[in-house]
Amino acid sequence: MPIPGTQQPEIIQIDDTLRLRRFDNVYDFALDWYLDGDTTYLVDGDPVPYSRYTLDRMYSYLDGYGELYFIEYLTDGEYVPIGDVTFCCDDLPIVIGPKEMRGRGIGKKVILALCERARQLGYETLGVKEIYDFNTASIACFTSCGFTESGRTEKGHSYILYL
Question: What pLDDT band is residue 117 in, cutting at 50, 70 and 90?
Fold first, then answer.
């Protein structure tokens, strides 16, 4: 669901090889990401792989929560989905699915692009509800974008960025 009173862009072009594409309810390709226990551990703190039902519920929830996008990377002249991200003022859940695409600065570029969108929309802050303490890559990514700890959660910390 788009942010009330705001049109969600179909495409947010980040650079020559990276873009965000508006969620379109076609996501069979994403199940592979969430069948990986390492990925679900980083997302949920639990290594249990998702079922199709769980993936359906997750995307339905996120699409109703904020602007849901697929992260796409240009490969052999074609944009290929490699992750997803939801843009909302109080949370920015992001997943880079294929392990070989992690640690390449893609998440940081996505977050910085969404920080710019927030500025354009007049937001004063952006938040992240929780990053688990063991998810050091995600912590490093968000803090390198200027987010700071704003509170303690059950398994980690919440973060905020003052725009």
Answer: very high
3-class SS of residue 73: strand
CB atoms within 10 A of CB 105: 12
Domains delineated in the chain: 11-122 (3.40.630.30)
Q: What's the predicted TM-score (pTM) here?
A: 0.96
Closest to 88 measured CA to CA, from 152, 8, 14: 8
Place of tokens 């688990």: 132
With tokens 């996008």, the residue in question is 69
**Which tokens in the block code for residue 79?**
């944009």
Alpha-carbon distance of 56 to 37, in angstroms, equals 18
